[in-house]
């Protein structure tokens, strides 16, 4: 991960381990007041969910841009450079613009600490979220698409007042922070719905859907229930990318996905519903979704042998990757390079992914909270007969390439941080 200058170094100096007791909106609310309330801007689209929120956010942003709107997109984490978290009109912010936005956040934090003590200093994610809001404020973005980090209710981004709340598929992830079970997690995510906004709910498991519908009713918010109000027709795959018609009543939108994987059908349907709720014309929706790029998600980074990058970091993501490999890599030798953060259900994830590979190489990213290859081997070794370990991604890629032919696939997965490091190495 690049740390290019003093303002960026300041942000990274705030990094620490995730602690449940640090969650809450009080620090962020104080910081927003100190900065003049950039979170109160119009045109905010707030997105929460377990899977698909980044891809869905990218499609919504692209559709808005295709309609001629000035956009800001805030997502996390980044693959290689922190600038990637902040897109203005589809492009990462420049180093100069980023530094200029960090400075008022730093000064505001110092004033808060001077008045209230070190214990109320905004966290890394709170500070980064504030930087994004300041960047979009200065740029005058007409629409600001904000992705939650972890959860929703107590996520730093939940200080915004959205025009539209989008809830992608909810699954069981981060249960140590969000609570056990689908219903409790859905309640955390659904808390981004606020009176005065509109909501779009992606297809969900029954238990999660009921909770999300109730969150909207409690906030007196009208919701588009995608599973009930939109249909997929004439779906077909071409080299792993899906084409289909999205239909709601008399409206028909032709979706031609550039993003690979069947799971993107649901994300694109949700994005189309969200863009429709915002009044975007069908032609702009079609153009925007067709041109959406989202790095590190079923992305081919190299040929001969082919290297596929996919940040499948939870069970739902692992299932989606396994389905893709079973469909598109059938008859080819697959070497899976896997690394994970320590807080993930690696046994369940490995149970989905490892059986579709001919060989598994366990490794780790440079991020402090990544699990060691030895710990991964102990937790997942029973899922495959041929598992090796490598100290880092460079060694893992060398090991995989040494035993792969031109028709074989190497898949790097399990952690967005690991995927980012692989992407840097592969250029």
Commentary on this structure:
With 427 residues, the protein is α/β, with parallel strands linked by helices. It folds into two domains: 6-290, UDP-N-acetylmuramoyl-L-alanine:D-glutamate ligase (3-Layer(aba) Sandwich), CATH 3.40.1190; 299-426, Mur ligase, C-terminal domain (Protein-Tyrosine Phosphatase, Chain A), CATH 3.90.190.20. The protein is 41% helix and 19% strand. The chain has 16 helices and 17 strands. The strands form three sheets. Strands 4-3-2-5-1-6-7-8 form an eight-stranded mixed sheet, sandwiched between helices. It has a six-stranded mixed sheet with strand order 12-13-17-14-15-16. It has a three-stranded antiparallel sheet with strand order 9-10-11. α8 (206-218) links the parallel β7 (198-201) and β8. α10 runs antiparallel to α11 (282-290). The longest helix is centred in the N-terminal third of the chain and has 22 residues, at 95-116. The chain is globular, with a radius of gyration of 21 Å.
Q: Could you outline the blueprint of secondary structure elements for this entry?
A:
Layout: H1 6-12, H2 26-34, E1 44-48, H3 53-66, E2 71-74, E3 86-88, E4 91-92, H4 95-116, H5 124-139, E5 143-147, E6 164-167, H6 175-178, H7 182-190, E7 198-201, H8 206-218, E8 223-225, H9 226-229, E9 231-238, E10 241-248, E11 251-260, H10 263-277, H11 282-290, E12 299-302, E13 306-310, H12 315-328, E14 334-338, H13 346-353, E15 359-362, H14 373-380, E16 387-389, H15 393-402, E17 409-413, H16 416-426
Parallel strand pairs: 1-5, 1-6, 2-5, 6-7, 7-8, 13-17, 14-15, 14-17, 15-16
Antiparallel strand pairs: 2-3, 3-4, 9-10, 10-11, 12-13
């Amino acid at each position: 991960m690049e740390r290019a200058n003093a303002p960026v170094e300041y942000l990274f100096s705030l990094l620490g381990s995730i602690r449940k007791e640090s969650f809450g909106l009080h620090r962020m609310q104080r910081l927003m007041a100190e900065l003049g309330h950039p979170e109160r801007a119009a045109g905010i689209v707030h997105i929460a969910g377990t899977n698909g929120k980044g891809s869905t956010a990218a499609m919504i942003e692209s559709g808005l841009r295709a309609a001629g709107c000035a956009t800001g997109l805030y997502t996390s984490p980044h693959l290689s450079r922190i600038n990637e978290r902040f897109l203005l009109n589809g492009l990462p912010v420049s180093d100069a613009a980023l530094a200029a936005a960090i400075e008022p956040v730093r000064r505001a934090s110092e004033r808060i600490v001077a008045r209230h003590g070190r214990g109320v200093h905004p966290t890394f994610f709170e500070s980064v979220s504030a930087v994004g809001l300041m960047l979009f404020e200065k740029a005058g973005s007409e629409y600001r698409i904000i992705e939650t980090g972890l959860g929703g209710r107590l996520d730093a981004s939940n200080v915004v007042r959205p025009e539209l709340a989008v809830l992608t598929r909810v699954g069981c992830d981060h249960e140590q922070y969000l609570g056990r079970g689908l219903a409790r997690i859905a309640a955390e995510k659904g808390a981004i719905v606020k009176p005065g906004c509109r909501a779009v709910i992606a297809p969900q498991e029954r238990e999660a859907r009921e909770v999300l519908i109730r969150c909207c009713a409690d906030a007196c918010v009208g919701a588009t229930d995608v599973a009930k109000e939109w249909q997929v027709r004439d779906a077909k795959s071409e080299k792993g990318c899906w084409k289909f018609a999205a239909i709601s009543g008399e409206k028909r939108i032709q979706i031609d996905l550039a993003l690979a994987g069947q799971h993107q059908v649901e994300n694109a349907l949700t994005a189309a519903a969200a863009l429709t709720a915002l009044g975007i014309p069908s032609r702009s929706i079609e153009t925007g979704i067709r041109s959406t790029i989202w790095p590190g998600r079923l992305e081919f980074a190299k040929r001969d042998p082919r290297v596929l990058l996919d940040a499948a970091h939870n069970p739902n993501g692992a299932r989606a990757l396994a389905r893709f490999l079973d469909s598109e890599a059938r008859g080819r030798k697959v070497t899976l390079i896997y690394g994970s953060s320590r807080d993930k259900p690696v046994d369940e994830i490995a149970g989905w992914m490892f059986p579709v590979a001919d060989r598994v190489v366990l490794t780790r990213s440079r991020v402090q909270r990544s699990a060691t290859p030895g710990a991964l081997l102990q937790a997942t070794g029973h899922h495959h007969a041929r598992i090796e370990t490598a100290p880092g991604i460079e060694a893992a890629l060398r090991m995989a390439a040494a035993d792969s032919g031109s028709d074989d696939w190497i898949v790097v997965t399990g952690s967005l941080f690991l995927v980012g490091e692989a992407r840097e190495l592969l250029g």
